[in-house]
Design a protein that fits this description.
The protein is mainly α and 190 residues long. It has seven helices and four strands, in the order αααββαααββα. The structure holds zinc ion. Zinc ion binds next to helix 4.
């Protein structure tokens, strides 16, 4: 069913990029018969077994369970991504932002994509898959206003030492001290 395959691409970016043979064969092939759910159980074509529906990804109906989708599609995609220094860097910066948001700022998510980070670093990133300048690895993106989610409009690019200082300020003195510390860095940088 073409509707199902385009749904797959939009609901899972990683899966879309990988275009894995397994998923192609398992999900897209018209030759495979549709197996109906029975008693809230669905057939996983990799497990070759009926599993509880909640073990499948939400959204578009797929015939590969979550564990197998991860093992066969998302994990290989991530491994490939980590061999590209540029993508690896973007992922590392994004992950750091996400961890800070969760642990320090008490926000479950950030409104910033790796694409946004790439855009904000565009001038510093070489095009080719060359060695990246070492200092890029330590750049951090911090929220300008720590009370709202990190986003394109709410971010400041800071050196790593300042990130540590800001995190400490937020922990010890709350938002007021965080904002104060950020403002004095900006003044000094002028
Ligand atoms: Zn499975």
């Amino acid at each position: 069913m073409s509707g199902a395959t385009s749904g797959l691409a939009t609901t899972c970016d990683t899966a879309e990029k990988v275009n894995s043979n397994v998923v192609n064969k398992a999900i897209k092939s018209r030759r495979l018969p549709i197996v109906p759910d029975v008693d809230n159980r669905r057939f996983c074509r990799v497990c070759q077994d009926m599993l509880p529906v909640e073990l499948f990804p939400a959204g578009t109906r797929r015939y590969v369970c979550r564990r197998h989708l991860w093992e066969r599609v998302q994990l290989p995609s991530k491994m490939r991504m980590l061999t590209d220094p540029r993508k690896k860097l973007l992922w590392q910066i994004w992950k750091r932002c996400w961890v800070d948001a969760k642990i320090i700022f008490g926000q479950p998510r950030i409104s910033l994509l790796q694409k946004d980070i790439e855009r904000s670093l565009a001038k510093k990133l070489p095009d080719a898959l060359e060695e990246l300048p070492a200092e890029l690895n330590s750049l951090s993106l911090m929220p300008a206003d720590p009370s709202i989610k990190l986003s394109c409009k709410n971010m400041v690019l800071v050196p790593p030492t300042l990130r540590k200082t800001l995190l400490k300020a937020r922990r010890d003195g709350g938002q007021a001290l965080y904002l104060e510390t950020l403002a004095s860095w900006r003044d000094a940088a002028k």
